[in-house]
Amino acid sequence: MRSGLRSRRASRHAPLPFEAYGISSRRRLGVGRPKRLLGRERQHLSGRRALVIGSGGGIGAALVERLVASGRFDRIYAGNRRPHSSRHPSVTRLTIDILDDDTLAEAGRQIAPDGALDLLIVATGLLHRGPDIRPEKSLKQLDASTMSEVFAVNSIGPALAAKHFLPLLARRQRAVAIFLSARVGSIADNRLGGWHSYRASKAALNALVRCFAIEFGRSNPDAIVAALHPGTVDTPLSEPFQARLAGSSLSSADLSASRILTVADQLSPTDSGGFFGWDGRPIPY
Ligand SMILES: NC(=O)c1ccc[n+]([C@@H]2O[C@H](COP(=O)([O-])OP(=O)(O)OC[C@H]3O[C@@H](n4cnc5c(N)ncnc54)[C@H](OP(=O)(O)O)[C@@H]3O)[C@@H](O)[C@H]2O)c1
User: Fold this and answer.
1) 68-99 residue pLDDT tens
2) Would you state the pLDDT for residue 191?
3) What is the pLDDT, as a whole number, of residue 246?
């Protein structure tokens, strides 16, 4: 089993630091329902560039399909550990392992010459894997190597993706970075316990997203960096647990992708640093 990060050669590939400091005190958590798109925002989203990391996953693949179908992006970069060949001319497949700084840096080098990104979605995640990794039901099931791997994929990997790709987001105009989190990562909302590593790793992700939103907002007050719960979605990640759900709670990956993109469109810079559900409503940390 792999544990932790594979490369510590980050410094060679360090992206440019964020430009300026002095965040506005008006920056705050998101409020209420999604707002209607302003004409300026709608216009801005046409003919731009988007990157989806985790494009081989259930939700990630659906996001790429939705972005292609929307026709709103000139170029869609689809990052995955094992990239397939592109079926659509607007899709560029990239090899990205979020635990490997070298693949992240190389992907950044491929994207940067094309221009800034308008949308970044990190759709990677780990809840279970075969007999090795299962969400814990009790304290006695805690295991150091399992916890390390779950934290690596759910917290550290997205942070490394932020390090490499937030600096590629467009400046001085609206740009959005969404990190797929999970409602079970809400500390305030935790009434059931269990799934210790997954819950805590998503809580850590939410904390990191908040940090990144503050830091990135200093150089780009129009940027939106947010954590988002995609709903309970019919993918390999949820598959072992679906039997316990009423059918109505389970969304298709395509519906979830559509909802994620709607929320991405409708969040505003004052929502940056927030944690939101698939319906755009804020979720308490
Ligand atoms: N499905 C749900 O009900 C649900 C609910 C709440 C939150 N979420 C969150 O939504 C996100 C997407 O979940 P999903 O349902 O689409 O899961 P999924 O189908 O299992 O996809 C997960 C993706 O993460 C990728 N991944 C794992 N480790 C990686 C690494 N080191 N580098 C690059 N990619 C890596 C996998 O890549 P490979 O294809 O290479 O394995 C896969 O593409 C996750 O953050 C998950 O926690 C999902």
Assistant:
1) 999 999 999 999 999 777 779 999 999 999 99
2) 93
3) 62
Tens of pLDDT, residues 120-137: 999 999 999 999 999 999
Residue 135 lies in a domain: yes
Q: Contact 114/75 with Cβ under 8 angstroms?
A: yes
d(CA 202, CA 208): 10
For 230-279, how does the pLDDT look when each residue is reduced to its tens digit (9 = 90+)? 999 999 999 999 887 765 689 999 999 999 999 999 999 999 999 999 99
Distance from the CA of 21 to the center of ligand 1, in angstroms? 33
Question: What number does the ligand 1 atom closest to the CA of 59 have?
Answer: 16
Would you say 178 and 260 are in contact if contact means Cβ atoms under 8 Å apart? yes
Would residue 21 count as lying in a domain? no
CA 199 to chain centre: 16
Spatial distance between the Cα atoms of 125 and 268, rounded to a whole number of angstroms: 25
Given this model, what pLDDT does residue 47 score? 52
Show the tokens assigned to 281.
């409503």
Question: What CATH number does the domain containing 54 carry?
Answer: 3.40.50.720
278 near 62, Cβ under 8 Å? no
Give me the number of domains the chain comprises: 1
For a mutational test of ligand 1's pocket, the pick from 64, 81, 165, 256, i.e. the residue with the most ligand atoms closer than 8 A to its C-beta, is: 81
Strands 250-251 and 48-53, sheet pairing: unpaired
Strands 232-233 and 223-228, bridge-based pairing:
unpaired
> pTM value?
0.86
Residue identified by tokens 């940090």 is 211
Q: Is the CB of 230 under 6 A from ligand 1?
A: yes
- The ligand 1 atom at the shortest distance from the C-alpha of residue 152 is 31
Q: If you average pLDDT over every residue of the chain, what do you get?
A: 85
